Amino acid sequence: MDDYMPPRYQMLGRIGEGVHGVVVKARDLSNDDKIVAIKKLTLRTKHGWIAPCAIREIKVLQNSQCENILSLLDMYPDLSGMSLVFEYMPHTLYSRMKDEEHPLSRGETRRFMAMLLNGLQYLHGLRIMHRDIKPANLLIDSKDVLKIADFGLARLFNDQDPTKVYSPQVATRWYRAPEILWGCQTYGPSIDLWAAGCVFAEMLRGVPLFSGATDIEQLALVVRTLGTPNLKDWPEVRSLPDYNKIRFPNAKGERWEDIFPSCTTKCEIGLVDGLVRYNPSRRFTAEELLKMRRKYSKI
């Protein structure tokens, strides 16, 4: 991909390269030499079609104004597509969790979760599903403010139309809600809350809650941990496209207290339990949890 950028920006080096584009570090010469990150998006697929993920990301960012959503500062066309200019974020939640010299404190874990919930409440209030919440997509600035990024899979949802169909090929496997793993195409924003619960559990434990190598293994880990779905609690599971195609041994499930370190509080475990549950309609919403933050150790 070409490295064209307006004279306003001075390239400092490449930060990384993802599925949807290259990210470089640059200096904004017209703004007190502020350090920024520039994501170069290809607007067309290899077949010449307009890439929907790029258009979705641009639309979401243009309409988002929240302290816990990555800020879009500028954008400009280049020879291969569009470049998006963001505030520079030195860390991801993933890199912070992997920093053995400076492990996350319990206070940082609670604050980061509160920021994630605040960002999700904002997005869901705009009727936007992120659909790929995971530690690598949660950026952290120099002041330890967490911001949700990477909206290439984001979609608008209509909570008045439960029959609207979406692709089940979304979210990174370890954070993918069980209804999607069973092939559901009529899901809603609760998939983001399942993922948020998995992220919180990972911060508390230091390792992912469910780390399957395949979709079937991922489901097997979920069933072993939560137990076989109770049809009384989640009758809709029987109608999911792949539910009857995949059979697992009956499982009673594990106690959350046996999964988390002994220092984990009941409120923290309660938060995970309120998000990592089978029935999407029974998962807490971000708004509900933020209202209950005093109960959950001021999360």
Automatic annotation (TrEMBL):
It is found in: Cell projection, Cilium; Cytoplasm; Nucleus. GO terms for molecular function: ATP binding; cyclin-dependent protein serine/threonine kinase activity. The keyword Acetylation does not apply. GO terms for cellular component: cilium; cytoplasm; nucleus. ATP binds at K40. Keywords: ATP-binding, Cell cycle, Cell division, Cell projection, Cilium, Cytoplasm, Developmental protein, Kinase, Nucleotide-binding, Nucleus, Serine/threonine-protein kinase, Transferase. Its EC number is 2.7.11.22. The keyword Membrane does not apply. It comes from the Eukaryota. It catalyses: L-threonyl-[protein] + ATP = O-phospho-L-threonyl-[protein] + ADP + H(+); L-seryl-[protein] + ATP = O-phospho-L-seryl-[protein] + ADP + H(+). One of its GO terms (biological process) is cell division. SUPFAM superfamilies: Protein kinase-like (PK-like). Residues 9-299 form the Protein kinase domain. InterPro entries: CDK, CDK20-like_STKc, Kinase-like_dom_sf, Prot_kinase_dom, Protein_kinase_ATP_BS, Ser/Thr_kinase_AS. Belongs to the protein kinase superfamily. CMGC Ser/Thr protein kinase family. CDC2/CDKX subfamily. This is Cyclin-dependent kinase 20. The lineage of its organism: Eukaryota, Metazoa, Ecdysozoa, Arthropoda, Hexapoda.
